[in-house]
Design a protein that fits this description.
AlaDH/PNT_N; Rossmann fold; Ala_DH; alpha/beta; alanine dehydrogenase activity; about 375 residues
Length: about 375
Amino acid sequence: MIIGVPKEIKNNENRVALTPAGVAEMTGRGHEVYVQHNAGTGSGFSDDEYIAAGAAILDSIEEVYAIAEMIMKVKEPIKQEYSLIKKDQLVFTYFHFASSEPLTMAMIESGAVCLAYETVEKKDGSLPLLIPMSEVAGRMSVQEGAKSLEKPLKGRGVLLGGVPGVPPGKVLILGGGVVGTQAAKMAAGLGAQVTIMDISLPRLRQLADILPANVTTMMSNTYNIRTMIKDADLIIGAVLIPGAKAPLLITREMLKEMRPGTVLVDVAVDQGGCIETCTPTTHENPTFIIDDIVHYCVANMPGAVPYTSTLALTNATLPYALQLADKGWQTACRENKELEKGLNIANGKVLYKGVAEAWSLPLNEVLEEELSVL
């Protein structure tokens, strides 16, 4: 198979979808790999390293899309890329279709096969290609939230860990999944007073067992959220419904109940966000203020730490990418139900329930026998 790795063109996105080590695995199995010039430099990988691993370097993004049967990316295609994607071309990346109707419609129109990292799912319900970036984003949410609390950035001027004689800051985390758990670990490590909420009592029991003593678990409901936001310094939105829009937990009206300078970090913003007033921002301009509340809503948080993020992501994606390259997407998805769950759109058909529901589109069920003829 011919694999293309374009340079990411989303604002301040420095990750790359395939490392030189991954290229070596691909070329060692007889596949051709074309990497765009400087695609890996943001993550610390030079063109020379890719060439040594067996890749060919192409000057432009147009050349990469034109030659490739499978495109490997990190973030969803943006408007400039829509017209480059071809019918029957396999695009393997994060898509987050439920947060973008224009992207969804463009990919339906393209006739491409869109296999989304974020909905590849194991039998136990875990999301192996989302977990590594959720781990990075969860840890970064506290790092960025702590910075945004500083007064020059219009925060409350609170040091999360406090100092002797001064109480620590208060952190409220909405969601006890991978993002929330990693955020709680980081905030607790800084010495903050942490509350983590979830709707699952078994999950709260599990979190109570594994997290430090300065983390309190609490059932997530509107009453409890309204109570806790009143004196929280940092609030982290960490909820996820795979492939679908995130549920709305904090409304605009609720901002009035918070203290001026409170910081909101919505890690779910790339799935529509769980805070009504959050809209996607970039690393270049990461925050904005509404009703004296600081909003941090960067949609590609791990892109700020590309070396760590690229290695973490490609450790997870490469085994699946090799299956797709070795067998073709139909056979790979027929034989591996985890990959089949990643199929969101193929040949103009919506195949994932969350995407269909988000934009009121017809859902086409993927049956085993259909995978060979789609």
